[in-house]
Design brief:
- By secondary structure, the chain is α+β, with helices and mostly antiparallel strands.
- The protein has one domain.
- The chain contains two helices and seven strands.
- It has a seven-stranded antiparallel β-sheet with strand order 1-2-3-4-5-6-7, with helices on one face.
- A hairpin with a 2-residue loop joins strand 1 and strand 2.
- Helix 1 packs antiparallel against helix 2.
- The longest helix has 9 residues.
- It is globular and about 25 Å long.
- The termini are far apart.
- The relative contact order is 0.18.
Length: 94
C-alpha cells in the first residue's frame, strides 16, 4: 500500500510517495525546470528542463533532495549542488 503526501512549498508543489525509499515528484515554480522526479530506492534524480532537456543524476541522497525542495532557486541549486557532485546522463531520446 502506497502513501502519498502532497507538500506545497514556496517554490512549487511536491508529491511524496512512501517517504522513506519511495519517490518524489516535484513541479517547481522555476523558469528553468519543469519537473523533478526522485526515486529513493535507487537514489536516482531526474530533472526535466523547460527547454525539453532531461537529465538523470545517480547517487543523490534524500537529504539533498529535501534541500532542493526548499531552495530559493531550484535551477541555481541544481547548478551548484547537483551537477558538480553527481554522475549525470542526458536523455537523448527527445
Amino acid at each position: 500500500m502506497s502513501t502519498m503526501v502532497k507538500i506545497t512549498t514556496t517554490n512549487g508543489e511536491a508529491k511524496l510517495m512512501s517517504l522513506l525509499g519511495g519517490s518524489v515528484v516535484f513541479n517547481p515554480k522555476s523558469t528553468a525546470v519543469t519537473e523533478i522526479v526522485y526515486v529513493g530506492s535507487n537514489k536516482h534524480l531526474t530533472v526535466t528542463y523547460t527547454n525539453g532537456g532531461k537529465y538523470y543524476y545517480y547517487g543523490v541522497e534524500f537529504p539533498t533532495v529535501i534541500e532542493l525542495l526548499g531552495a530559493d532557486s531550484v535551477g541555481s541549486f541544481i547548478a551548484k549542488q547537483i551537477k558538480p557532485n553527481y554522475e549525470c546522463i542526458k536523455d537523448t531520446t527527445n
